[in-house]
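Box 3.1 A note on notation
Throughout this textbook, protein chains are presented in two layers. The first layer is the amino acid sequence; the second is a token string describing backbone geometry. Keep the layers aligned when reading.
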Amino acid sequence: MMMNTRRMMTLIMLLTALTTMAKGKDWVTIQNGELWRDTEGNVVQAHGAGFLQVGKTWYMIGEDRSKSWNPDVNMYSSRDLQHWKFEGKIIQNGVTHPDLGKGRFIERPKLLYNKKTKKYVVWCHWEGHNYGASEAGVFYADNITGPYTFHSGERPLGIKSRDCNVFVDDDGTAYFISTIEENQHLGFFKLKDDYLSAESCTTLFKGKSREAPAIVKVEGKYYMLSSACTGWDPNQCKLSYSERMTEGWSPLENIGDRIAYDTQAASILTIKGSKQTTYLYVGDRWMDPDLPNSKTIIFPLIIKDGKCDILPAQSFQINLKTGEIKTP
């Protein structure tokens, strides 16, 4: 009887330990300030990153700055935002388009999925010598990992366009947001149903010279983070919000410290968990110490009732199933 009791207690302790371990696997630790490496041990090159979640898998695309200039566009995949598998170069110099790597280069590629056409679409800054082209590039593919085909490279609706991002609303309406007319204003380009071209443009934040726009929708409100135009140097991140996408945006207000914790916004991720929805700020820490070794930084975002706070945690834990976060 005593032996059975001991065996039973040992079994209970073992099961408890295994359960705790299983629960612990749901928690992921995000460590900031270090170079990311993929599952093969190579440095992750996906600067100005754009993200798309398909099922439980996150896909990330960005600039390959390993040779500093004329970047290819790389794609990585992950189920935990920590371990990234290299999926390949989805847009490549001299391959996807003959001018890439010569008279043309790409910045800030962003990824969309069109439910109607069932195609994956990339919008990006499609640039030339001395930033004189000021155009947007569009690529598409049947499969998320490519191969991607060049669709167009032009000024959307004839408007000069540079630093950019994308946003898809709840009803599937997609927008390309970019700095326009020599970085003076922000242009909100509503895309056609196939996401391959723009059908209209609303000019907002006139004369404010904002770039690196990143938009997220929370409880019916649109929140946008953006930075000033200071090249590779970080500056004050500012917030604006609105209940309508193309009008009614609030005056810009400072958030974070004066250099956005040495980052520039690239994307905002929405983690829909079983207990709560959590938002993550993804930014580039440019020239740290040089362009190829620039860092990708992830901070928790607290967003509610027109307010937004960046939590500049050196490290934090997130449970991707429940949406919960633990910060030091």
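Residues 1-23 have pLDDT under 50 and may be disordered. Residues 29-326 form a domain with the Tachylectin-2; Chain A fold (CATH 2.115.10.20).
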